[in-house]
Amino acid sequence: MRTSSTRHLVDPELIPLIEASPSEPLNRDNLIDFRQSLAKRLMALPCPGITPMGRLASGQNGAPDVRLLVYDPGGTDKERPVMLHIHGGGMISGSAELSILGIAPIALELGVVVVSVDYRLAPETPFPGPQEDCYVALHWLLAHAAELGVSPSKIAISGDSAGGGLAAALAFMIRDRDDFSPAAQLLVFPMLDHRTGGPDDPYCNPITGEFVCTRERTQFGWEALRGDYRADDARKGWFSPALADDLTRLPPTWIGTGALDLFLDENLDYARRLRRRGVPTEMHVYEGAVHGFNAIPQASVSKRFAYDAAVAVRQLLIDL
After folding, report:
1. How sure is the predictor about 124, in pLDDT bands with cuts at 50, 70 and 90?
2. Which of 71, 73, 201, 286 is 20 to 30 A from 115, comparing alpha carbons?
């Protein structure tokens, strides 16, 4: 494991990000304070320039309704592309408003409608609650496609960090339930493997995970999501996508991650496995980048990410 700091490997333009990141351990006792602090930081971020419409998708089997935020960039075309976006936050924090970060604003700039999902958080709602909320949101989107002026054949699922993991899980859910095939999945430093950072970590990369998203915080998030689930049945890929045995019949995939991100190795391994199963997959690794690096959009590495992500959105979703 790590014996010295990796700070010298961090892109200098990203130093303010790691200096501003909380350093205290995360646990159930301080989780509420952590969520409130994240919400305050979110309020200070620039808005995307589009006022979202709040909608509700009916919960299933007694579950509460799922809150959605619909960002509509406008346009008269009735067959517009649309992105179902799932926010990050380690499975235990965040809200649909976090869609103003990551790949969603890039899609909006390109004229893509974005629907952001306010799924329930762990530990209050363990697996499979958050995943089922995303599934409900997707079916709401399908049912309201005509009303929104979007095409069911141009739906991408996307997410950042924990949201990227939930997006990957959603791809398995809709495949396994034989619902429909999304046009693409776009995953930004996705959280895919519940073993990362724990005693069964298959990667143990000594230069990842020192900053922002640490092993300890990641394990807290996974254990909160897991609850009493044993991850030993056919749904294990819905819980932790890295555990999925069958990676066939998944949509074309784009993955972007940082070279110092704790999730680097699980992202690389996932991309490799997808390609071996014939899934068109594009993988980008950004040197000197830690988890959440695109929170500093003016950094050169973040601009490269934004360019690559825009190209992917055009190719996978718009130019169909």
Report:
1. very high
2. 286
